[in-house]
User: Which sequence fits this backbone?
């Protein structure tokens, strides 16, 4: 079985007001019933604007927050039932690369120590073996051994993200969650880091969950995509299918924002009006209806569910 991670109906509700005098409590539904699978050696891209819940999904997967409902299965076993040693093993197997290469590295530690630290924490090998491994990891991410003695401020943003990646793969994880790993970098540097992630995936058989607000960034990396809007997946399927034929109006809008690859490429232009509504007061019915150019009367009343369309993608929209 190739499925490493199986997420079912995952929910994270944050109480924001307690119900008084019998009033119903108010919840911020950051993640509201999200399901997906991640396969060995493959990439799932999770796409959406800020506030759509994609970073909360990452925190739930990393066990930094407990879900309100739903299940996370790692290799067929529900992580909610893991004992301490199984949890420790899971933490070795699932690593994360964060968005901000500036604040995610401790300024008082050398690059070498930062990369070695997971090996120290998990007690992997002797000191000499760990130093050898650091040397190897630096090389794998395109840095030199002399970089080991330098401090984070001595590196560029792209180099800092390479250090983060080296640290994330130090323990030979099977899956790495990348939360907007290139969003803070210059466009010219973004491609280098994406190429590095792709090469490491091929060399190490890594699975990625690649979280981004930018569809053009995930294009070269994703096997599958899940498009999120206000805590829910509105479209999901094979990346190629969705790039060829985006179906949900929100996905179409995200795609029309990417510049065409050739001047002959015909693209439906769609500009999104306004910002994402507050997740505290999500619109009724289809949560996208306040911004959707195709909205019909039904859309503000009835919430569409995720439906399989043909043998391609799953879409939640009343148009289908
Ligand atoms: Fe637009 Fe209606 Fe489809 Fe929602 S259900 S995306 S409002 S057409
Ligand atoms: Mg985020």
Assistant:
């Amino acid at each position: 079985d190739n499925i490493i991670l199986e997420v079912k109906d995952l929910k994270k509700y944050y109480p924001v007001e307690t119900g008084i005098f019998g009033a119903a409590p108010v919840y911020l539904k950051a993640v509201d019933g999200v399901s997906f699978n991640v396969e060995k050696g493959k990439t799932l891209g999770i796409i959406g604007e800020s506030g759509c819940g994609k970073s909360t999904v990452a925190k739930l997967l990393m066990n930094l927050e407990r879900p309100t409902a739903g299940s996370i299965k790692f290799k067929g076993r529900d992580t909610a039932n893991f004992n301490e040693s199984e949890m420790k093993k899971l933490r070795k197997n699932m690593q994360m690369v964060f968005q901000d290469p500036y604040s995610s590295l401790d300024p008082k530690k050398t690059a070498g120590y930062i990369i070695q630290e997971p090996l120290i924490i998990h007690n992997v090998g002797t000191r000499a073996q760990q130093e050898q491994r650091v040397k190897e990891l630096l090389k794998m991410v395109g840095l030199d051994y002399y970089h080991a003695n330098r401090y984070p401020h001595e590196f560029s943003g792209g180099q800092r993200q390479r250090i983060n990646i080296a640290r994330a793969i130090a323990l030979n994880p099977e899956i790495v969650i990348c939360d907007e790993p290139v969003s803070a970098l210059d466009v010219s540097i973004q491609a280098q880091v994406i190429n590095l992630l792709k090469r490491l995936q091929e060399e190490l058989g890594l699975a990625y969950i690649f979280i981004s607000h930018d569809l053009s960034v995930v294009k070269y990396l994703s096997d599958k995509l899940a498009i999120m809007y206000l805590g829910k997946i509105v479209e999901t399927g094979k990346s190629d299918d969705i790039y060829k034929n985006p179906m949900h109006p929100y996905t179409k809008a995200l795609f029309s924002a990417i510049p065409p690859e050739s001047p002959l490429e015909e693209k439906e232009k769609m500009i999104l009006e306004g910002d994402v509504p507050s997740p505290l007061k999500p619109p009724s019915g289809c949560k996208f209806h306040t911004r959707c150019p195709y909205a019909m009367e039904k859309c503000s009343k009835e919430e569409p569910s995720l439906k399989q369309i043909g043998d391609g993608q799953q879409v939640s929209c009343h148009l289908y």
Notes: The mean pLDDT is 91. The longest strand covers residues 3-17. The radius of gyration is 21 Å. Residues 187-204 form the longest helix (18 residues).
